[in-house]
Design goal:
The structure holds three protein chains of three kinds. Chain A is an alpha/beta fold. Chain A is built from 13 helices and 16 strands. Chain A has a single domain, classed as 3-Layer(aba) Sandwich (Peroxisomal Thiolase, Chain A, domain 1). In chain A, strands 1, 2, 5, 6, 7, 9, 10, 11, 12, 15 and 16 form an eleven-stranded mixed beta sheet that branches. Chain A has a three-stranded mixed beta sheet with strand order 3-4-8. The N and C termini of chain C lie close together (about 10 Å). The chains are: A alpha/beta, B alpha+beta, C mainly alpha. At the A-B interface, helix 5, helix 6, strand 6, helix 7 and helix 8 of A face helix 5, helix 6, strand 6, helix 7 and strand 9 of B.
Chain lengths: ~400, ~400, ~90
């Protein structure tokens, strides 16, 4: 049976550029959620986010004429490919699956705002050419010379994780030996305003699993992984970050914004992933939760985790407490965090967690990263609209 | 190792400018061959360089979905829900029956523009009335996967729900990915297809940017794929889905099997975004490889469908790619250009699924094999091979 | 404002913001119940209630504390209109 390993990582996060910088921030438990600088926030209840620092974006080495999200994606994907040390021939046969939601909407909004406010056509109209989510895949496919199957998946908050699962499927089916997979989202007005309008944002940095949690914090990032058939990777002596044992993708089919009240779809996604991985719940050391910090998500996710792992059966933490909810990037960014946790034997903490909600019967690793042997871990992404993805990752022993 | 899973087409559901219904309605429309492209009625195109489109009849759409039950569904969501539900009904598959069935039913929706109307409405609320003008109810529809979420609720589909975003060949890509989900065991059945709707500001911008027929050329506006005087695509709207199932399960339940998907692949020809360089070859020879893997010689393909839609870039590149693939397979090439359904239904995300449906219906009626090819500006390429279900 | 006037405003909101059919709204009375799960109600769910709260805040110029449990107040058009009158100091 085909085994899938990860041979490359690439990240641009609110901590800065690079997977190493990302890990340093997570390990330090540093909260990157701050007052927003990219867009106007007057009149809104929540005015903070985890933005990629301006210096980071300026130093990415990608033309500033490109949409912000394109720049983040290109930089992260380039890092992942360099890390994997793939030849041009490998790239020519590599699949590309990109999880995206906002696309170039930030720049599109600038055009729309200007035209609406001035009543005159704006030269920013050029932004419309890269407004749609597929734009990133077309840019990456071209610049990185990737010739295998190319696909853009939109699955809200689970897009990045779905990209990983769908790319892995292509390798398992024997279609390609290598897949470049991941997600990206830049901050947009529509995302900021929309989650504010739904009253799902905490005016202060989010505090997942905390008794006094009041909502999410948004963020932006790009995270890409190179997935490879294990046998092929070993034949070329690639360095392996870890193994993707299995993935589960399910739909609640319950409500367009609220999760199923008993976490039914979440449970099935985890059970499906574990089943495909051939791993029992007892073997899992750590769950990197979806953990948005909303009253509802955390409560229902905890319910689902209890059904699968039993009370206290596993360490749980939310990376969204540190780098915000990075939307389409979240699923792949948090998969990277999970792999790095396995590699380093260190569980990133849940920031801002003072008192765990008594309804959440888990050690949620409050505020300080926890040294712990992590052989096998699960990463969850439960998207808006009840679209769930669960990934099982493990140290690769060969 | 278990035998590879085979994928068959057991249902069709469509809401488009020419017709709405299942396999029979579509077959009748295809046989009649009438074009649904006409001067736009639903919004003002005064001063616009393009004025044609294939519009869905509002009365038809209203008749397909109960208004109050669907009050929160944006128009494009209604199109997607109506057509996907019809595909399921057409295939007589009831996911509500066995508890397990719903869990194993997936959805793959392809779209180019998604729900732009909702995004605009949401933003306009803010620009007109500030923070108080934001509608929490509209916001969820601005994320492209909302259509899939609504369709999943309507169908009781609890397997994977995937939305793919792709210009020109969104429907083809969705069907190919849907077939892969069934073949790979991620789902036992998948409703796969595409949707797009006409949206006045998008139409006007595209026309002004010369992306639509007549593209600033002196020849008349119209959809003439592969013709010497082709001068751009004409937009349409609608949703079309096929029901794909694992073959032995379909046989066991006595489903009507229109055709088998013998192979479905997609790839990328690395070119600059938005371009369609006719001289650029596909180093992977997608179609040649597909036919080789399926052991179907090019001469055995009785029907060829293509994504050429009157956009000269797409038309020309498609012809040259297909010719190169067939030469590689030692074949002289098809006698004519591949069949385009764009003149009938207009360019929109559902068109690829209409092509697959037409190919399946053709194979069901006349046997043989059919190949549905797709290429888009930016290099995304698809190939779906259908044959009689043995 | 009278309760009837508030009721008429609420009917307008139910059409414009919650997208109910105007003919159905015309038939609504103070007795009309709102939440899903109540027989004969309009079947409003959590997303509808958020939209309704935002619309009421804008239309009547008041602030609704989302921390409060207002399920009783949002039970019917009668209880809701009384709540609005109280909040705007007119009841």
């Amino acid at each position: 049976m085909t085994r899938i390993v990860v041979t490359g990582l690439g990240v641009v996060s609110p901590y800065g550029a690079g997977a190493k910088t990302f890990w340093a921030g997570l390990a330090a438990g540093a909260c990157a959620i701050r007052p927003i600088t990219l867009i106007e926030t007057d009149g809104f209840r929540s005015r903070i986010a985890a933005e990629v620092p301006a210096e980071t974006v300026a130093a990415l080495g990608v033309s500033p004429r490109r949409a912000r999200a394109d720049r983040l994606a290109l930089a992260a994907a380039q890092e992942a490919l360099a890390d994997a040390d793939l030849t041009p021939r490998d790239r020519a046969g590599a699949a590309l699956v990109v999880g995206a939601v906002g696309g170039g909407m930030l720049e599109g909004e600038e055009w729309y705002w200007e035209e609406t406010r001035t009543g005159r056509p704006s030269p920013r109209i050029k932004a419309l050419r890269s407004i749609l989510p597929f734009t990133h895949a077309d840019t990456l496919g071209w610049r990185l010379r990737l010739g295998g199957p190319k696909e853009t998946v939109v699955m809200a908050c689970a897009s990045g994780a779905a990209a990983i699962a769908l790319g892995a499927d292509l390798i398992r089916a024997g279609v390609v030996p290598v897949a470049v997979v991941g997600g990206v989202d830049a901050l947009t007005r529509i995302c900021f305003m929309g989650f504010n309008a739904l009253k799902l944002l905490d005016p202060d940095p989010c505090r997942p699993f905390d008794r006094r949690r009041r909502g999410m914090s948004i963020g932006e990032a790009a995270a890409f992984l190179v997935l490879e058939d294990a046998a092929g990777s070993q034949a070329r002596g690639a360095r392996v970050h870890g193994e993707l044992l299995g993935a589960g993708m399910t739909t609640d089919a319950h409500h367009v914004t609220s999760p199923h009240p008993e976490g039914e779809g979440m449970v099935r996604a985890m059970e499906m992933a574990l089943g495909r991985a051939g791993v029992s719940a007892a073997e899992v050391d750590y769950v990197n939760a979806h953990g948005t910090g909303t009253l509802q998500n955390d409560r229902i996710e905890a319910l689902a985790l209890r059904r699968v792992f039993g009370e206290g059966g596993v360490l749980v933490s939310s990376s969204k407490s540190l780098v915000g909810h990075t939307m389409a990037a979240a699923g792949s960014l948090e998969a990277v965090a999970t792999l790095l946790a396995i590699q380093h034997g260190l569980v990133p903490p849940t920031a801002n967690l003072d008192e765990t909600d008594p309804e959440i019967p888990f050690d949620c690793v409050p505020r300080l990263a926890r040294p712990a042997p992590v052989e096998c871990a699960v990463s969850n992404s439960f998207g808006f609209g009840g679209q769930n993805v669960s990934l099982v990752l493990r140290r690769f022993a060969g | 190792m278990s035998p590879p899973r085979r994928v068959v087409v057991t249902g069709i559901g469509t809401v488009n400018a020419a017709t709405a219904g299942g396999a029979r309605a579509l077959a009748a429309a295809l046989a009649a061959g009438a074009s649904a492209i006409a001067p736009i009625r639903s919004f003002d195109v005064g001063g616009c360089p393009s004025r044609l489109a294939a519009e869905v009849d509002e009365a038809v759409l209203a008749g397909l979905i109960d208004r109050d039950a669907a009050r929160r569904l944006s128009r494009i969501c209604r199109l997607a829900v109506a057509a996907s539900r019809r595909a399921l009904d057409d295939g007589r598959l009831d996911p509500g029956g066995a508890e397990g069935a719903g869990r194993a039913l997936g959805i793959v929706i392809g779209t180019e523009h998604g729900d732009f109307r909702s995004s605009e409405e949401f933003a306009a609320g803010f620009l007109r009335r500030g923070v108080a003008g934001l509608s929490p109810m509209i916001f969820p529809n601005t994320v492209m996967n909302a259509m899939g979420a609504h369709a999943a609720i309507a169908l009781g589909a609890r397997g994977p729900t995937v939305t793919v975003n792709q210009p020109t060949i969104a429907g083809d890509l969705a069907v190919a990915r849907g077939a892969a989900l069934v073949a790979g065991g991620q789902a036992e059945a998948v409703v796969a297809g595409g949707v797009d709707e006409l949206c006045a500001p998008v139409y006007r911008r595209l026309a002004e940017l010369r992306a639509l027929s007549p593209m600033g050329r002196p020849t008349p506006e119209g959809c003439r794929p592969f013709a010497p005087d082709h001068n751009g695509p004409v937009l349409g709207e609608g949703a079309t889905f096929v029901l794909l199932e694992e073959r032995s399960a379909a046989l066991a339940r006595g489903a009507t099997i229109h055709a088998e998907i013998l192979a479905a692949r997609w790839s990328n020809v690395p070119v600059a975004p938005h371009t369609a360089p006719r001289a650029r070859r596909d180093p992977g020879s997608l179609v040649a490889r597909l036919l080789g893997e399926a052991s179907v010689p090019p001469g055995a393909v009785g029907a060829w469908y293509g994504s050429g839609n009157g956009d000269p870039g797409v038309d020309d590149w498609e012809l040259s790619l297909l010719a190169a693939d067939l030469a590689a397979a030692g074949h002289a090439g098809p006698a004519e250009a591949p069949r385009s359904l764009a003149p009938m239904f207009g360019q929109h995300g559902g068109l690829g699924a209409l092509r697959v449906s037409a190919a399946a219906l053709g194979v069901a009626a006349a046997g043989g094999a059919a190949l549905v090819h797709g290429i888009a500006r930016g290099g995304c390429r698809t190939a779906i091979l259908l044959g009689r279900a043995a | 404002m009278t309760q009837k006037e508030v009721l008429d405003e609420l009917k307008g909101i139910v059409v414009e913001r919650l997208r109910f059919d105007p003919r159905r709204a015309a038939e609504m009375t103070l007795e009309t119940t709102l939440p899903k799960g109540v027989e004969g109600s309009l079947g409003l769910d959590s997303l509808d209630f958020i939209e309704l709260s935002v619309a009421i805040e804008e239309r009547f110029g008041l602030v609704i504390d989302e921390g409060e449990d207002l399920s009783a107040e949002f039970h019917s058009l009668d209880s809701l209109s009384r709540f609005i009158l109280t909040k705007t100091g007119q009841a």
